Amino acid sequence: MFGDLLKLLPRAVVRKVAAVHGSDRWCKSFKLWDHVVAMVAVHLAGRTSLREAELLLSHPRSHHYHLNCRAVKRSTLADANKTRDSAAFADIVKHRIACGGRRERHAKAMLSILDSSPVQLMGRGHAWAKSSRSRHLNQGLKVHLLMSPDDGGLDYAAVTDMNVNDITEAMNVPLEAGRIYLFDKGYCDYNWWHDILDVGAHFVTRIKSNAAWQTLEVRPITEPDIVSDRIIELTNKAPRAGKINRLAGHPLRLVEITHPAGKAAPFLIVSDMLDVPAGEIAALYKQRWDIELLFKWIKQNLKIKRFLGESRNAILIQIYTAIIAYLLLRAFRKLLGKKIPLRLKDIVVMCQIGLFQPLHINPAAPTSTPSNQAKLPL
């Protein structure tokens, strides 16, 4: 089963990345491919220590030929996690995202949700993380993902220090025409919103309570849970230090809805889509919760809470290989098709039980998903 999963990660791509970064230079046996295989196996099999990883990858030896890898000593894996540049694994993630192919364009615009999630690193061995401490006394790393809620696919993935602002990393996200980008208040930068409009895309987000704007038009309310619906424009043309707000004077849609948690303060949802019903804009923003479920799924089913190393490089490698494992699982699930309707969680469990066993699935035995769970294409 592990061999079938690894077929979805071309070895030629890994060799190319190794050549670019010099990852296999001065390395006699434990090449970049061996490193990727070892770390992905750790995630899929649910191992939490170097000793467990060594036992997993040392037996049975008969499978090493088919996986094009070797038995791994825990000291070798520890040294590689500490010294091999994590940028090579980041490039493999980019290649795997690109290999996913461009999803079929539908008549409606595709949704893309952008968000980040912290990876807290405290205590022994993580003194290096103190330099990334934010004003909320969080320290560690931050995972940034851009996902499509239609199929759970990833379009962008990066890992930064905890004190890097979300909007700073968002500037590196490639924007695409025809998409609707959903994000929260952490991405409040009016000029970046204008960049989204420049490429022919749209956005839905929440506006900050201290934003300076004026009402151009008040529209009638025809849908439940909508407090107000209006057309506004931003009035602060020069926010600070001579910076020009390119979005000022541009008509925007402001939809006010009741707080989902019942709090007194309402949600102020802003978008550039002027002709879409207010209820649809509110429903689009609620879909942003899908990426929260994705982060939760990755942290619960892959190993990015307990790490095999303490250095920054080792932890970056483990996070990037977790993303690689997720992308391989998604591609494998898609390969099985509708005839074998397995959830992503089902495939993870099968990997934990028999990663090196043949895949035997009875298509007549359907899997059921509890109806009270939140819907996410996993």
Description:
This protein starts with a helix and ends in a 24-residue tail after the last helix. Among the domains are: 142 residues, no CATH class; 102 residues, no CATH class. Helix 3 packs across helix 4. About 4% of the residues have low confidence. Helices cover 37% and strands 17% of the residues. The protein has 378 residues and is α+β, with helices and mostly antiparallel strands. It is elongated, with a radius of gyration of 23 Å.
Main features:
single chain; 378 residues; alpha+beta; 9-stranded mixed beta sheet
Summarize the helices and strands and which ones pair or pack.
Layout: H1 2-6, H2 11-21, H3 32-45, H4 50-58, H5 64-67, H6 74-83, H7 87-99, E1 110-120, E2 140-148, E3 153-161, H8 166-170, E4 179-182, H9 190-198, E5 202-206, E6 213-219, E7 226-234, E8 252-257, E9 267-271, H10 278-286, H11 289-301, H12 312-336, H13 344-354
